[in-house]
Amino acid sequence: MPATHNESHAYLPDFCAASTLFVILLVSELVAIVLSIATGSEDFLTTLSKISFFTIWLALLGSAMLCVLRRHLERLGTMRALIASFFLLVGLCLALAELAFVISERLTPVPIIQLEHGDFLFRVFAISAIVVALAMRYLYVSSEWRRSIVLEAQARVSALQALIRPHFLFNSMNTIASLTRSNPRQAEEAVEDLSDLLRANLAADKSRTSLKQELEIAAIYQRIEKLRLGDRLKVRWDVDDLPMRALIPGLTIQPLLENAIYHGIELLPEGGEVVVEGRKSGETLTIRVSNPVAKGRSRSKEGNRMAMSNIRQRFDIAYGGKAKVDVDDSNGQFTVSLSFPLEGHDA
Asked: Which one in 88, 166, 178, 330 has a CA-CA gap of 20 to 30 Å to 229?
């Protein structure tokens, strides 16, 4: 199932994921080692094998249960979900302990568990309650940390939306003003394009949008800048290989095109060509935006850094480390490459 924006607010990890299961099994084995050492048994390996058998089965069953119930639990809210998970896991520990005790008593010639029934269950309850409580505490802290990251990213998106460069607005208005006398029809179209672009930039944040919508916004920006720069600006779109229904974090391509024009094309007296190309390779999409660099001329890189940092952070939150944002400024070209998983209905 594709990741959604709500995944960033999740306070329980994806117990169905192999990476999560690996960590859980590793922690359960560490717990088994600690408990084996704590018993002080002379036959350490035998004790470790018994405890490991119990903890690993417990880890597998607990992960399977929370994998199935995760979405239902998270509907309860953070605290209720963590409390419910605590009691479910402790209850599972006691149920598995009871089963182990019965098997040890009835199905083996010599009982494996050398403790009284009540004493064994009490010890399992105490140890499981402590371990599960620590795990729930970790999940809560991790949830709050992820939540703070999401809020910071949303604040950066809002700042980026509001930070439409003043020079772009002034230049666009001056261009429209001159067109009102020479070409009123083109001036009207430019006003409509500027209105559409402002609406897209200042609208309420959408975590994902279709590639078609994102490319349309970028094309609107290109048309407005083309009126001002004329033949100095050329943009080559090579995106036919991209599935237009695929999803991408909103406000991704247009800021890259804006940076390519502002930091590249405008500084070249003869202008240049911005290339936007996209490729689909299996379940991965790659989009590159490249522009020529003016040697010996540059503008403040603060705005460019802010846009790149914003895109990197939103991609990291949206795809959980499965996406890459690379920059290459060699060979007289500045190229930004975005690689991210293919997501979207009928993409």
From this structure: 330
